[in-house]
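Hello forum,

I keep getting stuck at the same step: I have a sequence, I want structure tokens, and every attempt I make locally crashes halfway through. Rather than fight my setup again tonight, could one of you with a working pipeline run this one for me? It's a single chain of 340 residues.
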Amino acid sequence: METGKLPPGILGSLLQGIPIEDNRVLIRPDVGEDAALIDYGDRILIAKSDPITFASDLIGWYVVQVNANDIAAMGGIPRWFLCTLLLPETINEDEIREIFSQLVSACAAINVTLVGGHTEVTGRVDVPIATGFMLGEVDKGKQVLSSGAEVGDSIILSKGVAIEGTAVLAREDTETLLLHGMSPSSVEKAKNFLFDPGISVLKEVTLLQNKIEIHAMHDPTEGGIATGLQEIGFASQVGMEIKSEKICVFQETREICSILNLDPLGLLASGALIIVVPEEQTDAALTILREGQIDACTIGRVVPQTKGLLMRNKIGLLENIPTFRRDEIARYFAEHASAT
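Reply #2:
Ran it on my machine without issues. Output:
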């Protein structure tokens, strides 16, 4: 099996086979939904788990962000966090303390309480691996699902694509990028994409909540913006018409993808948020985001499912939204490892 997410067909069949007998479970596990929803009276508990498996000097900070994003993408507020850390035998105490420091500070920055987890040194890993479990809350009736998109809706994208992938590649393969002519200043700027424009989507969700009717949101991660759009389409049983020229790709992302032969549409995309709103509220949503210093643009519209999931290319022709069997960064690292 290739590295990366399980193929949607396999994952979907596995998830559909899970018996759900507790009627408090409002959203069963499904492809495209960011988290589970559990009825807790006048409130809904949101539960999410997500790992960080790529080596990262900011793994403790990173794991908090990606789990908080999925809570926010369902309209919720992140509240409590647990983390399982699997650590290699080569790690030292100072490095462990640094990871813990990152966990504590990242949680504090978004008013999340670190309530527990598990730590283990094991010979089965050669880099630290962090798996986060985030709990959040949302008022009943305020939850937002990936499956809520309706025909005629506008599709808004915040910030741009492949923010996360750009930062990870700049941090993990600096030497290759410099050897192929990328300037040191551009590499450093790309490394800082984790913070500017940033991989957190909490700000854009907070800006729009209670001001705009949001039909669907999704935090695209593995498989990039292309996979994120497909997941909303599948979950909502709708089609899409996306304008490729409207999708923001940062110059540093273009340069890294060109050097490493990657497609930014299929590259790790945390930092972007797909927001689906009624057409008549599009301008208001964009104004709110821009006044809040969040770049955003309309990249397409929702169409009937029979029309398919389509993307209009730069010469005006409609093509299927590209499908990525695995994230471009997973493909790159796998090919790079086999070549060495």
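The first strand starts at residue 25 and ends at 27. If your local run keeps crashing, start a new thread with the error log.
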